[in-house]
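Is adenosine-5'-triphosphate placement plausible here? Inputs below.
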Amino acid sequence: MTLLSATDLYRFYHVGDDETRALRGVSLELRPGELTVLLGSSGSGKSTLLACLAGLDDPDGGRIEVGGERLSRQPEAHRARLRAAHLGVMLQSGNLIPHLTVLDNALVTGTLLGRPDTARAHALLGQVGLGQRLHAYPSQLSGGETARAALVAALAHGPQILLADEPTAEVDAATEGWMTDVIGEFVHTQGRAALIATHSLRLAGRADRVLHLKDGRWTDA
Ligand SMILES: Nc1ncnc2c1ncn2[C@@H]1O[C@H](COP(=O)(O)OP(=O)(O)OP(=O)(O)O)[C@@H](O)[C@H]1O
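Reply from A.M.:
I modeled the complex. Tokens:
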């Protein structure tokens, strides 16, 4: 069973006369119960790939399907609907809405879907050590707390797939441990899928598969 498939993705950026080929024919499938770690040096295309798979960017070529429906080459509203229904997304920044509390951020996507799961949000926030910070605003959080709140906001509506870009960058070992446990449980206990760009050895230690990007293409290592 495939939860997400990407076939032959291309993404080019143009700045003046310069063209950057950020993705050059990338294909991949994400399956239940599989934690996939995405590695690649700076500029190899990891963030571009994750943004395309999340429907936040649109590839110039290729096709993406999520939950059996085409995500690529769709109007933004359609992509947003598919994203809310199937995906949890954690980018390098901008994951939390500043004027909402930690708890309300965790309830945003569920509310949009018409099924906010307060019990699940509370449980996840407790699991990452934010049980006492439910009513704090993002500006009042430390970097590690922000990362944990963003992970919960990505997962609280119960998506099938987590897409995360360096979720544990710049967090301490305790936070890395909490986040790794939540992600591991999401994938391996609940049978969901995750694609995570990370340099964390702890997270990589839980990976079922490691994929390497180089200059916008898969490479062996
Ligand atoms: N909006 C943009 N406009 C022009 N070029 C871009 C844009 N976004 C990314 N690029 C270029 O596309 C290539 C891939 O960038 P991307 O951010 O996907 O890499 P990355 O592997 O995520 O890097 P990092 O690990 O540093 O975050 C790089 O050469 C980058 O400079």
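Short version: Helices lie at 46-53, 76-86, 102-112, 118-127, 143-155, 173-189, 201-204.
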